[in-house]
Every structure is written in structure tokens, then in C-alpha cells.
């Protein structure tokens, strides 16, 4: 009897790998978006600090200075929050990458197992065929042959 073909298992492994691939790219995409947002916020912080320093040199009302300081603190808070989120997203990207690699390895192992199983089956069939041909040859050319 022919052994189990593993096609259903391989199809399932391929689907799992495709899902892991999509999840990895989605996590990577989100990580890049947050990274861009962080860059933007840091540039905004630098610009705001420069504006505050320039206005201090020119002379600024205390109320405006307080507003600029509050804006700087708000931006600094946003930067810290975005950095925290970015670190979390980086961890998620690493986990998805590891998952993708694991799924890929499992699929490749199953493909090698299938190939080995198919080779063994062919070898078995070839041995059976050779044995049958030997038996036919013995029957045909044996001492009791009437041909």
C-alpha cells in the first residue's frame, strides 16, 4: 500500500507560512510608520526649541514663553510615548520574523520528508518489479520450461 502522500500537510504548512509572511510584513510596515512619526516629532521638537531660543534672544513675553515651554514638554512626552511604542513594535516584528522562519523551516522539513518518502516508495516498487521480472525469467528459462 502506498504511504500517505503528505500533500494536505504540505498545503497546510504553506498556508501557515503565507500567513506568517503577511503578519511579518504588516508588523514591519507598522514599525516603519511609527519610526517615521518619531522622526517627525523629533524634528518638530528641535524646531520648537530653536524657535524658543530665537524668540528669547529677541525678547519674548512671559506668557508666550510659558506656551512654548508647555509645547516643548508636550512634544517631549509624545516622543517618549512614540519611542515606547516603537520598541514594542520592534519586539513584535522580531517575534513575527522568528515565527516566519519557524514556519518556513517546518515546511522545508516536510517537503524533504515527502521527497524521501517518494524516493523510498519508488525504490520499493523498483525492487518489486525486479523480483517479478526475475521470477518470470526463472519460470521461462528454468529446467521445467517447455518453450
Notes on the structure:
The protein is an all-alpha fold. It has a domain at 8-108. 90% of the residues lie in helices and 0% in strands. The protein is built from 2 helices and no strands. It has helices at residues 7-58, 62-141. The two termini are 35 Å apart.
Compute the gyration radius: what is it?
Answer: 35 Å
The beta-strand count equals 0
**Sequence of secondary-structure elements:** HH
Estimated share of beta-strand residues: under 5%
Largest β sheet strand count, sense and barrel closure: none
Mean pLDDT over the full residue set:
91
The unreliable regions are none
Fraction of residues in helix: over 70%
> What is the terminal-to-terminal distance?
35 Å
Shape: rod-shaped
Given the helix and strand composition, which structural class is it?
mainly alpha
Amino acid at each position: 500500500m502506498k504511504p500517505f502522500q503528505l500533500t494536505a500537510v504540505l498545503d497546510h504548512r504553506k498556508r501557515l507560512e503565507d500567513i506568517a509572511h503577511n503578519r511579518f510584513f504588516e508588523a514591519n510596515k507598522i514599525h516603519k510608520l511609527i519610526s517615521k512619526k518619531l522622526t517627525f516629532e523629533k524634528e518638530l521638537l528641535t524646531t520648537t526649541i530653536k524657535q524658543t531660543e530665537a524668540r528669547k534672544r529677541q525678547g519674548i513675553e512671559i506668557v508666550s514663553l510659558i506656551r512654548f515651554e508647555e509645547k516643548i514638554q508636550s512634544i517631549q512626552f509624545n516622543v517618549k510615548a512614540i519611542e515606547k511604542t516603537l520598541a514594542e513594535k520592534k519586539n513584535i516584528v522580531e517575534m513575527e520574523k522568528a515565527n516566519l522562519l519557524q514556519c518556513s523551516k517546518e515546511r522545508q522539513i516536510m517537503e524533504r520528508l515527502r521527497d524521501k518518502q517518494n524516493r523510498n516508495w519508488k525504490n520499493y516498487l523498483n525492487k518489486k518489479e525486479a523480483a517479478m521480472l526475475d521470477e518470470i525469467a526463472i519460470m521461462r528459462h528454468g529446467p521445467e520450461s517447455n518453450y
